[in-house]
Amino acid sequence: MTNQAQAIAALVETARGNRPQSLENREVEETLNIALALLVELSVANDKIDRLERLVAKLRGEDVEALREIRYDGAVADQRQETTDALLMRVLRILIDPRAQAES
Length: 104
Prior knowledge:
Shape: elongated
Largest sheet: none
Coiled coil: 42-69
Keywords: Coiled coil
């Protein structure tokens, strides 16, 4: 494994048994699962962002808005893209789960 997204994909591919389903329509169930995964990711991210922005702004004696204007390139930009890819994999994992296709 070279990154989080690949690790999540490997975990999903090794799942066994039928995927539990509580709604009658599989597509609705998948949409709900994706929405809930996004909600969890967003909640965690918002909490981290708020805490870090407040701390860094206080330590630097700057306004929080100045932190939000910073842009990155090179290795930092690549690392940020990998993090985004892992987020997408976690949120959309239901669509790559082989158990879901087998039940269609």
